[in-house]
Amino acid sequence: NKVVDMCVLSKDDFRNLPDRMACPRFFIHTPYFQHPSVLRTLQSDEPEFATLDEFLQKWSGSQRKRVVLDELSRVGIEVDALRDSIPSASQFDVFDLLLHIAYDQKPLTRRERANRVKKRNYFAKYGGQARAVLEALLEKYAENGIVDIEDAKILELPPFSQFGTKTQIRREIFGGNDAFSLALTELEQALYESDSTAA
User: Which end of the chain is less enclosed by CB atoms within 10 A, N or C?
Assistant: First the structure.
């Protein structure tokens, strides 16, 4: 494996390294990268993520995953920079990238996670339009990832706009903001269920 003698790489530096070389703290493995320094950073700067079990508990215990990503960013782990530099990373959720990069776990693609939710018949407890909205959210997750479905603006875009405004979706279809928020939280739990229960 080729290395570049650098201590710190900016996002642009990391992305533009020739032949996807890395500094000594990053080691290249195919078909994915594995970055031991990420785990070392977590162990030293973010004790809550020091072990796989602790990471899974933190992830599953956070109502919104954006909070976890913000904490990682605070200690210098920029997921976007890692994603830009990892072959086939566009297929994977940030959760699976971190599982593989920091904890050497086999990642699942977003589509695989979405299909697991469908196979468990998760949507059976919902009816009508609420089920259709959640199925559309799951599809958006499979296409783009967890951050997108947590963005309130997603309800203003197709296919959600066919159900009404985002206020109508929350209040009339789900019965209020709290009920919609709970449904979204439960959908996220279903996406990561097998991982968190294994911890």
Answer: N
